[in-house]
């Protein structure tokens, strides 16, 4: 994400087509027909859902589609915020997830911040 992000340039550098992209100032239309103006540029690539959840595999799925040229990642990181956002929806109150050291190294080498939003399981499991 970033104010000066041009999606086509990021696509060219990373070698993949985004799931969703926008330029700052672009008019965006929602599914209900409402429109808004993009406040920042964004380039997003989404992994396929997995059942049961496998965060490490999903991160690897995304990284496998993108350039492994660290110079490209350093260029992007110097200009934009790079964030791998993950929503974890638990089925019960106490579940775990893991990311291997190898995957964490790959994220770190690319200056990718891993952000997790964790949603608790069913409230009746807490009783």
Overall shape: it is: globular
The largest sheet is:
2 strands, antiparallel
Low-confidence stretches: none
Relative helix content: 25-40%
Secondary structure tally, helices:
4
Spatial strand sequence of the major β-sheet: 1-4
Q: What percent strand? A: 15-25%
- What would you report as the Rg, rounded to the nearest angstrom? 17 Å
Overall average pLDDT: 90
Series of secondary-structure elements, N-terminal to C-terminal: HEEEEHHEHE
From the helix content, strand content and strand pairing, which structural class follows?
alpha+beta
Question: How many distinct beta strands?
Answer: 6
Distance between the termini: 41 Å
Architecture overview:
The chain has 127 residues and is an alpha+beta fold. The protein has 4 helices and 6 strands; from the N terminus they run H-E-E-E-E-H-H-E-H-E. It has helices at 7-14, 55-65, 70-79, 101-109, and strands at 20-22, 27-29, 35-37, 42-44, 83-89, 113-119. The strands form 3 sheets. The chain has a two-stranded antiparallel sheet. A two-stranded antiparallel ribbon has the order 2-3. A two-stranded parallel sheet has the order 5-6. The protein is globular and about 40 Å long. The mean pLDDT is 90.
